[in-house]
Amino acid sequence: MAMTAPLRPIALAALTTLPLWALPAPTAAAVVGEQRCVAGAVLDGGKGRTADMRLCGSLDNSFLTLSAPARCARSACDVTGTYRMTTRDGRPVASGKLATRTGYPGPGTYRVTVTARVRSAASGLDVRGTWTRTITFTWPKPEPVHTITVNPSVLHPGRTTTVTYTVTRRDLRGDSNARLGMIGEEGKGVRLSSSDRQCTNPLAGAYPSTERRPHVLDCALVDLQPGRPMEVKMRVRLGKDCSTVISKMGYWLPEGQATYNGGMLQGPTLKCEKN
After folding, report:
1. At 166, is the secondary structure helix, strand, or coil?
2. Which of 62, 181, 245, 274 is least enclosed by beta carbons within 10 angstroms?
3. 208 upstream amide cis, omega within 30 of 0
4. How many angstroms from the chain centroid is the CA of residue 56?
5. In angstroms, rounded to a whole number, what is the distance separating the alpha carbons of residues 13 and 228?
6. Is 81:115 a contact under the CB 8 Å cutoff?
């Protein structure tokens, strides 16, 4: 159903103004398109059918993609699976599905455990395996184009909490436009609202429906400048159930006519604590 509760006015304001000489200089562009691979494992599917796997990492701006491509004898093959990445001393760094992006942890040597399934329809190969390899990255960790902070960061069931997100643009790469999104857990009764004119709950149905998703709030920021952080205030109303609220922000990078030139930044998560 449509949200009808009145919203209190809030301010989306600059926190500070810096003189020109104090503005941050553009940082070095991230290494894009770089890839590093190491030998993986050979999985035996029987009857002479094998899958020769590798472990590869590629850097795209501040994101790392880990994949495990395979070469199957006399036929093409597909790979699906997951990975777990740790430092040498076992500290977790990242985990998830193969060939999906995660934040780049920076240069260093990491242990990666891959659990994969390799299939080839042409040869009838269908084999699974788990193996661990080390891989070393030397690429510098790119400086963030933006940073996002939030206060407070803890929610409580049965309460309404006003939280303030502060978005800071760190250098001149890209432009002043960004889209900040906050998302609660669907089905938990969480409601996000803001009277900021740049923020809205997205529509849920087809036209002419006016139903909106109360657990999602999008804010289109258009005047982000280095030296001028911006505040976005949001109200979070929880029912009897706990819900976290995540945040993420999309932004442009240089070469604006390129199709895939945007970036996505993971923001802070609002945690929920029972009373």
Report:
1. strand
2. 274
3. yes
4. 20
5. 9
6. yes
CA distance 220 to 57: 33
Token pair recorded at residue 47: 């009857």
| Count of positions (residues) in the chain | 275
User: β-strands 70-72, 78-87: how paired?
Assistant: unpaired
Task: Report the number of secondary-structure helices (H) and strands (E) in the chain.
Answer: 0, 20
How would you label 170-189 residue by residue, b for 16+ Cβ within 10 Å and e otherwise? ebebbeeebbbbbbbeeebb
Which residues partner with 263 through β-bridges? 251
At 112-156, the pLDDT tens digits run 999 999 999 888 889 999 999 999 999 998 888 899 999 999 999
Are the C-beta atoms of residues 156 and 275 closer than 8 Å to each other?
A: yes
CB neighbourhood size of 60 (10 A): 16
Q: What is the per-residue pLDDT across 208-225, written as a single tens digit (0 to 9) for each?
A: 999 999 999 999 999 999
Closest CA to 10 of 182, 180, 161, 197: 197
179-210 confidence digits (pLDDT tens): 999 999 999 999 999 999 999 999 999 999 99
> 111 near 85, Cβ under 8 Å?
yes
- Tokens read off for 265: 């930044």
Q: How far apart, in Å, are the Cα atoms of 219 and each of 167, 182, 192, 258?
A: 11, 9, 12, 24
